[in-house]
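3.2 Worked example (two chains)
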Amino acid sequence: MATDDYAERLRLPWWLWLCGLAVATLLAVELWMGAGGVRAWLPFVVLIPLTLAGLWRAGRIRVAVDGGELRVDDAHIPLRFVTDAVPLDAAGKREVLGVGSHELAFVVQRPWVPGAVQVVIDDPADPTPYWVVSSRDPVRLAAAISATRPQ
């Protein structure tokens, strides 16, 4: 990894795993309610693994700057189309994603990650004006994008 490269995974905090499992277990208990037969075990066998899979999927997003591209999960854009990268704190993220947000913006935001980076795009073939990407270290991500971007 070069010095300008950056990578992070937007994992869930431990307390969200705990809350998700508690809610799944509570729902399974509600469905069971002392019944016998299949209703005794099926809610637990179905709901808890589905909840774990959903939580894992929500926390698997990878944000990286490498090989001259910004990668966010499966999406990627060459940095030659990036004109600016602006780090945002929680208030800035809320403002960018609020009422004045652009309907064609590409947004990957996670509510448990307070910061974000607004990446301004200038690609004639793409109507997307900017990306908003959650990041635990938005200043470092913006710096990596700016440092790696061709001038």
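3.2.1 Second chain
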Amino acid sequence: MPSLFRRKSADLVDPASEPLTPAEEEASEAGRPRNYTPSKGRETPKRPSSGRRPPGTTKPLSKDEAKALRRQRRAEASAEFRREGGPRDRGPERLLARNVVDSRRTVGTWFFGGALIVLIGSNQAMPPGIRLAANLLWGALALGVVIDSVFISRKIKKLVRSRFPQSTQRMGSLYLYAIMRAITFRKLRTPEPRVSIGDPV
């Protein structure tokens, strides 16, 4: 006599999970609309909300705040350029050339001030004696800048060859870089000097 409380294993199988025959699959597909997309079997995961900026939390800046922010960024960029310099100031040879110039007093720092005096003194309204003195001063300044530039270039050449024998830096470009720095006022030099006058290089 079969048991009334036990079911066969075949009875436990869910009819919906049984595989369909090819004829049944065709019949089910024929009754579906064209834009039907079969289920993937799981729920589509949502994007994580952590780490994302919540919408509407950024307050737009006012005109005065934007102007103050731009002014602050310009000041920071200027300070960084004053401290570190630009791409043309990169490299150990350029640093050495700057230190050579900054460790001494140069005639070039007086060049522009003297040029202003020469410009005023050489005016046709000035007496001949003042015009002559202005021309002599101009010649002395020019000669002093040339002599000082020669000494700076020779020292740079000596130090670069002894400290950086494998350097690929063009010496002519390095000389011009140092001379242009030498005729600039010390407080206006960029990058700012790292050595004091008289310090060994």
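3.3 Remarks
DSSP finds six helices and no strands in the chain.
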